[in-house]
């Protein structure tokens, strides 16, 4: 067994219209998600209060055009990918992952909850009420489920009984407290992945149509501080014997190892470790051409940039993509107003440029991934990093990364012990889930340049103008058969406390537009964990079916009215954009 640092899923199930083998993350939904239902009486539909600070005009008309001749960037089909925290092994949730097997095809207009992933869920809350004999039967059934997994044909896996699921909830709640204590005290217990756990993880990914990227432990060091690869070699040989198609990484935030093991590892040493890992992979036929990613450094401050430079000098040509992580604010001290600050949104853009400068110095053209991203660090904060307000940072992150040429972004995390995840502890989808779902349904890999007029007020001396209205444009996803090729999708973030009006110009003028407007649902406003789409609350239809994401058609030539403090997508139909006609 190998002590791991994490694992990633680089693709997700496609919509029913997708080619069977395509890994397009989150397209009809996020992997690991499926069987949840929200109460129909989630709350009253309310409009956010609008305050107009002095000097802010709510009726300024903005002219918007898009360059439809050629894309400025082309990102990966797997641009939006997902990270699974190893805590699912620690707290037991790994036993409850199962791929969807033979779910019926959705009816016209319906979506299917992750055609390849489910976490079992039982409606209702409360104690387990399970007697000793019931618990014994439940645990025996789990063993049978594991055997079914080992001997499965066609990815059919036995379900766990409700009693065991309720016991797992109690165990996870207790483990949640333990993991948070470890995080805040910066002392961690070992986590060992057994062969059986690896089998479960890989079968889940494989049956869900996902590609698994496995992060090996880099903390096992020899006396001379080089990487001790003996344990990793055992894992590689085992995975190869099972013919598991896996890509690999080594370590997680290596710039922080001093606090974990009492000694630091510099960039050049980690580069040598990666070279050693590449040699190991080449010795094993199954992985001789496997992809290798790294170094997965933390926020690129001065010392971290020096670390990356040392790594790139030694191993820049060894990795298939250079990876780093970004968390916007400390989750222990964040407040909702932080998520509305344009200065905070712009910190990512500065980091992208720093990473690109180093990478292009040593390996020009090398792909770059943001491999761990969340709104807040330290596990996040309840009712904040899992709220509607956090979506401003998340959607802006997707827009900035795509427009600046970052090939893949890996969201941390689908489900873990903190509050940065996409579903809650009852497997109900959170606002960032619905944002991600719409993104995958509507946004294609080709990024387009936009041209705007009237976006900013007249700058005053000494004042930095930062846009509170963020607009991004892509070719509409080729896999969305509701729209013909050549259509364009805009996504817009309005951080103003007043509505904004946008008039489509140039090639977009007088075209029919489909609006997908996301707003918080219920009395909690920006703190809400529920959202509405075009005025209708979003909830699962049943345990295996996503709701129909109905657009609101706008007549040709109509001005787009963007409500205050909202996020929205607009598909401009039948533009016949040259950049978007062909893949």
UniProtKB/TrEMBL annotation:
InterPro entries: GH, Glyco_hydro_79. This is HPSE2 protein. GO terms for biological process: extracellular matrix organization. The gene is Hpse2. Residues 100-136 are annotated as: Disordered. One of its GO terms (cellular component) is extracellular space. The lineage of its organism: Eukaryota, Metazoa, Chordata, Craniata, Vertebrata. It comes from the Eukaryota. Belongs to the glycosyl hydrolase 79 family. GO terms for molecular function: hydrolase activity, acting on glycosyl bonds.
